[in-house]
Amino acid sequence: MRRYLEQFDAWFIHLLRKLSMPFARIALFIVFFWFGILKIIGTSPANPMVADLMQATLPFMTWETFIILFSLYEMMIGISFLFPRLARFSIALLIPHMIMTCLPLIFLPDMTWQGFLTPTLEGQYIIKNLVIIAAAMGIAAHLHPMRRKN
């Protein structure tokens, strides 16, 4: 019985190793592309928080211009994750996005915290970005180091 369990365990781990990168890429595409579309068509529940953050950090820009650019940026992150050759580009786009999306935790505490270490629903929405960062780190960990051509 133990031998069958060990064989199943080895098979299952092999399957997960084979599927984890494509699944992570598709999941990141879905999240970024979908949330980007919701923002651009004005149905994202995050839009009020994004608007408040924009007002606090980029008061010189109009909401209409910002939300279109931000939405397209999110959609570009999602699309780029679909292509393994663009992984470095995807992560380069992701880093400032993750920094920007964490700013409400600091700049909009009334909207993101209901008490000490107790986030609001919006705060939880932001904190879940740690999972996105972990998935991107997993993708980055499988990249081959760049080599200088002589």
Strand percentage: under 5%
Largest sheet: 2 strands, antiparallel
Q: How many angstroms does the end-to-end distance come to?
A: 56 Å
Structural class: mainly alpha
Would you give an account of this structure?
The protein has helices at 2-40, 47-57, 63-81, 87-102, 104-107, 109-112, 121-127, 129-141; strands spanning 113-115, 118-119. The protein has one domain (20-141). The chain is built from eight helices and two strands. Strands 1-2 form a two-stranded antiparallel ribbon. The termini are far apart. Helix 3 (63-81) packs across helix 4 and helix 4 (87-102) packs antiparallel against helix 8 (129-141). It is 75% helix and 3% strand. By secondary structure, it is mainly α. 15% of the residues are buried.
Task: Give me some keywords for this one.
globular, mainly alpha, 150 residues, single chain, 75% helix, 2 strands
Entry summary:
This protein is mainly alpha-helical and 150 residues long. It contains eight helices and two strands, in the order ααααααββαα.
Mind sketching the topology for me?
Elements: H1 2-40, H2 47-57, H3 63-81, H4 87-102, H5 104-107, H6 109-112, E1 113-115, E2 118-119, H7 121-127, H8 129-141
Antiparallel strand pairs: 1-2
